Fold this protein.
Amino acid sequence: MATIESSMADIQKVHILGKEAIHCGFHLIPYIVETVLGSLPASTYVLVTDTNVANLHLHKFSDQFDAQIAARSVQARFISHVIPPGETSKSREGKAAIEDFLLKNACTRDTVILALGGGVIGDLVGFVAATFMRGVRFVQIPTTLLAMVDSSVGGKTAIDTPHGKNLIGAFWQPEYIFIDAAFLETLPTREFSNGMAEVVKTAAIWNADEFAALESRSSEIFAAIQTPSQFNAGRTLSTRSEAQALLLQVIVGSISVKAHIVTIDERETGLRNLVNFGHTIGHAIEAVVTPQILHGECVSIGMILEAEIARLLGVLGQVAVGRLTRCLKAYNLPVSVHDPRIASLPTSKLLTIDRLLDIMKVDKKNAGPAKKVVLLSRIGATHEPKATVVPDAVIRKVLSEAVTVIAGTPRNSPVSMATPGSKSISNRALVLAALACGTCRLKNLLHSDDTQVMMAASWISKYGATFAWEDGGDTLVVNGGEGALTPPPPGKELYLGNAGTAARFLTTVCALVRSEDGTQSTVITGNARMKQRPIGPLVDALLANGTDVKYQENEGSLPLKIKASTTGFAGGHIRLAASVSSQYVSSILLCAPYAAQPVMLELTGGQVISQPYIDMTIAMMKTFGIVVTRRKDEESGKLLDIYDIPTGKYVNPPEYVIESDASSATYPLAIAAITGTTCTLTNIGSSSLQGDAGFAKAVLEPMGCTVEQTETSTTVTGPPVGSLQAIGLVDMEPMTDAFLTASVLAAVACKPVSKERELPDAPSNTTRILGIANQRVKECNRIRAMIDQLAKFGVQTKELDDGLEVYGLEPSALKNGASIHCYDDHRVAMAFSVLGSLINGTIIEEKRCVEKTWPNWWDDLENKIGLSVDGVELSSQPDASTSGAGRDPEASVLLFGMRGSGKTYLGQIAASELGWEYVDADQYLETVYKMTCKDFVVTHGWDEFRATETRLLPEIISLKPTRTIISLGGGIVETEAARDILKEYAKTKGPVVHISRDIRQIVEYLTNETERPAYSQEIEEVFARRKPWFEECCSHRFVSIVEPTASSSDESLRQIQRTSREVGTFFRHITGVSPNLSPKVNLGQRSYFLSLTFPDIVAQKDLLDENRSDILTGIDAVELRVDLLSPHGAAKQPNVPPREYVIQQLAWLKHITNLPVVYTVRTIAQGGAFPDKAHEELFALLELGIQMGTEYIDVETTLPHSKIRKLAARKGASKLIASYHDWSGDLRWFGTEIEAIHTTASSLGDIVKIVGKANSLEENMELRSFTKSVKKANQSKPIIAINLGEQGQLSRILNETFTPVTHSQLPVAAAPGQLSFSQIQSGLHLLGQLPAKRFYLFGNPISKSPSPTLHNSGFHVLGLPHHYELHQTETVDESVRSIIRSPTFGGASVTIPHKLTIMEALDELSPAAKLIGAVNTVIPVEQADGKTILLGDNTDWQGIRNSVLSRSACRWTAQDTGLIIGAGGTARAAVYALNQLGVGRILLWNRTYSSATQLASSFPVEYNITALTDLSDISNVPPSIIIGTVPASAVTEGGVKLAPEMFGCRQGGVVVEMAYRPKVTPLLELASKASSKWTQVYGVDVLLEQGLRQFELWTTLRAPRRAITQSVTDFYNAV
Ligand SMILES: NC(=O)c1ccc[n+]([C@@H]2O[C@H](COP(=O)([O-])OP(=O)(O)OC[C@H]3O[C@@H](n4cnc5c(N)ncnc54)[C@H](O)[C@@H]3O)[C@@H](O)[C@H]2O)c1
Ligand SMILES: [Zn+2]
């Protein structure tokens, strides 16, 4: 039995709706129980909570309730109900479940319900209470910060429905809200930050002081929840720590505001919607990225965007936006959708402007379609006491990532403005004002991390300075602390984040701190990055001066512990090494007047760095009343690095205007210059110590502007538009940051340079900027950036070692509509917006990058300068003009390459494979000039040859625009004119193919060659010169593989065949005539690819040869894992395979197999080996894949989409597989995340690939229902969706498109859980997805047939459950008819004597079967309506054709003659086969002449068949292909008389024997006797080929050639 704990507690109470209902404190459980029991008598107390909270805190409640109920001896019970955590509980079902619990426990109207938990519990339980028994009393005990400050206060309760959040609910006020801040100690910090967003929000709209506290005390507030309070510390004031008090103060402050607003406007009619600040946009974002991103996180971003709306509308200043941003960041909240936490989510891609505006349309606050936003007017106040209607255009502008400046004349000219304050001056001014006596109003302060922490530092020191904002944040009022600094209380550290300048300045400031007994000290620290930044030289100087400084962690860096002595900073002679940072010097200078002794500061270490900054400090000290003198060498008058600083106190001037940042100042001045208007900057002039302040005089004046400067102001008036002058050489070494501004002006400085600035070696429109080499290593390589971006306007430039030259053009000559990539560099963005004020349609792609120095640049352009700025949503569609989609697939193909690369040979094969013409440009030249190329060169010289070649190029193209392979001389790329023609052709007309071959082979080949002109230089040198040109001009490349010399004639035949097949496939694909894609993918049939994980494919070429291995069996494509390629054995992460190696490997792969290749460069993050960040290298490799005609390119959707789209525009007939892999196991197959992934991938690729990781079998079902729903959608793209891991194997079995498979002969599976093709077939069978079928042979006699062996071995290798058997019958009888109509019937072979009679039992015949008049194959075909029909086909002719093609290199044309012996059914198939092979004339001989004539007349006349009477009578038309279709016995028994004349063809030919046994028949014997030039095809070969074809027709799978051949051969030899 628990004992009653003391309910004594110090409580802070807050009024709401006229009652003191909100009770706040620490460790309140006994107090809560006592208060509830004492003031809310009831028969039942029901506490509802979620499992997370229950585990942590429920027992304490039940203990106290039990104990106190017992002690009070009242008739009451306490029961509790625990529900699952999370938003999903806030549903109708969740509500019903609680109600059922209450009803089951017989709860009555007098029940009191306690809601213990976060907002989910509060909202849900509150709504239950509102309707249970028409409403019962309830109590809120919030345990999250969000619930404490927001959801529990105000009486709003609600549940979600699938239509949206909080759509059903009620206003129902709780009796009490108990805020026990001790609950926050168990809350995850992310949840705490989530609540802080609401706290910051409330302060931002209502209470500036509160906001200032939140802003400066974030680390203490975090600390308060991170240190657990022991022994109920904090329950009473006496045990409450300072951190706890602060935390409670923040919470109570926030609650008070909300309670106040709620009390005035309970039902949210006006004022109450102020608490929706940040929520209009925040909710829209949340709708897209929930549940990954929390409400407060979305609201945090929403607040910034809504504050930017206010800033754009001119009601809020930048300082406020900056403070808000910094404050939210301090609580670890995201402030932009580009925050990696959000940007890394797939759903973030859905955060388009249209989508967000669409969601905002249904906001509850809206009045009709108009959107309402709470506008801040300053920190702590709103523009109106309610939300303000804001036009869509404004919201759009703020949300858009890109902007365009509308070119024109600034409306506000003459402009007068101040530009953002200098950071260096701001930092110094803040230290000076804080140390001085009196009050100073700092104006135009640049609010940065440094100023932020310096202000925070004063907070901890009781007698330090104080700071206050005035004018809505435009002015900072500093009450100086006169340098009297006391140490902070023990335990408090000065946390500086990563603010570097602050760290350096404040280190010496801390040395000024004094304590009475000399025991206290100050600790200054920072974040991890800060703890590595050096501060050693400064500490050394202080130590030497007697200050006690200790490094707390790393020698030389923060944190530091600085002892507060009784006397403070000693002063006197201080030596400081000043070669690292001038900030050390400034730090000591700034504090020196407060030393006990006058300081003599001596700088040591040779070269003093950044003297101008030291001068700046000294000049500013003078303004605050302290004059520093720099010593001079008496004799030489040379300045020494020794400074004397008197002791004294700074005196604050009443006002100090921070000088403009001189680099920022260049932009408005440049706008005046370029638009011919006037601009005055009021806060920078000739007295400025900043180098960039020289810009107006050094650049603008010589360009033709009028420049007037006072000490503190600058006015520039530009000449009329279009009359800026080039200025020749300008050394910008003193003002390097301003060179970007100068460059954009130089682009339109078209008037000739004046005489005295003229450059002898450059045109008169040249501006040559030097002295800026350091700009290569800024935010980006700025010189390169300017060159590349100016090129988009058509502006020519030249890169120099130390700068660049820009050649000015008339403004009208610049291209409009340039879209500028900013490299995330503020200066690039601002410089090009200057150019945009003159050149129409200029788009600045990343507007946010200006935030670094001028966050409101765009607003200032609009409001202060008077140029309109529009938001632009960058188009995500690829540019149709470059997609090649509308290209004519029959456009001629241009070939070029080094001589000896096989251009002619390959070009001719290509032409023959495509059925196109082949034209050689050299020959064309020879025809035109009637001499050989060699003679031409000898007569006219190389230059003339090249010029002629180039001149003829367009001629040939226009002569042969289509259906021609045009082979060009290798030297064609030598002239620029020809290169331009080639590039243009590739871009707009057709493929330009670079044929290449290993250069060593070329050298070898050419050494023996004499026919063509000799190279004037060494071949390799020539190649090296041309290589980049080849690459630049071609759209595709074909790498010719020369295999080692064949060891046998069979092998050499295969080599030739491989090349023809490869060339045919390549050219058909790249032209688009017949892309080499898997037809199954689009038909939605199951398809598979095999992942090749070898580091070296070439070494595995035998494994990939279908004649030697079964590894590719059943496969529809092979995946080349480029990221795993490595010339040095297994690839190690990160792996970037050498380009040449990839080329060689891919070329080999394509040479060995005809299967489409899936080309994948998998990054490490997505489960591969390629480095994640190497985007340039990665896309270069993908581009290579497309160039080499790779059929499928895998692109990861996590890569930059702009790059993917560029690739897509180039892909031609190839397809992109847009892939996304989640290895975490967190990806679910339902909800918005997966939808977003899918939508993104669909928009990028032709095929979608999503890979998750299954933790349970059920997740495969979820995957399945996802893919099903996706496939139902209109125009859905094929999808590969699988789950990794063993738990995911089911998904691999069920996946339909391109299932990645492995094979037992591969070194490793490409992914965990990967199955082989045959495993998947077995799996499908067991799951009932692949029913076992029965196949038959019909005929008589058939007992010796090899067909069962053939097919059953094939089924076995593929893992198919089917069986093939013999069915011998005399006739096509009932048994046959019933077999073929059975549901398990898979197909049948038909042989003698049923080939004709079977036809009437079938439903349809293929065209071939019809014409041949015989059926040897029956195929059941399922129709769209689900019915099966029986199709009769004939594969005998295919057997003939395929065996001939695979065993001989011969090809036939209309000039060729073929001979068939016999006139039976097989002869009919032979006729058809010969015709299909292209033979122009067919001779037919049969013992019975009439049968021959009859057969001949049954074929169309085009077949050109002649029946012969005598076989020896053919010497005038010797056939080059002969097919024997009569049994061997017919010859041996004398019925058929063969004649040796048949083999009279001089070139030889192919003889096909259809008889199956004996292997060598009389016909073949005669052939070998007649000539060695006849290739023999055996009957068993034909049978094998027709069987393979049959197999494929039945199974729709590629037959396992090697395995089947093997088993048939074994069978044949055994019988
Ligand atoms: N009614 C309103 O005016 C109002 C206002 C804002 C938000 N809401 C609603 O509030 C809900 C969100 O509330 P939430 O952010 O508190 O989420 P939540 O209730 O889901 O709590 C967040 C997580 O923290 C856990 N948790 C809670 N207290 C804990 C503690 N002390 N220690 C450890 N874990 C703890 C919870 O179990 C949960 O997993 C949303 O449904 C939202 O619509 C309502
Ligand atoms: Zn909220």
Q: What stands out?
A: The longest helix spans residues 242-264. Residues 923 and 1144 are 31 Å apart (CA to CA). Residues 876-885 have pLDDT under 50 and may be disordered.
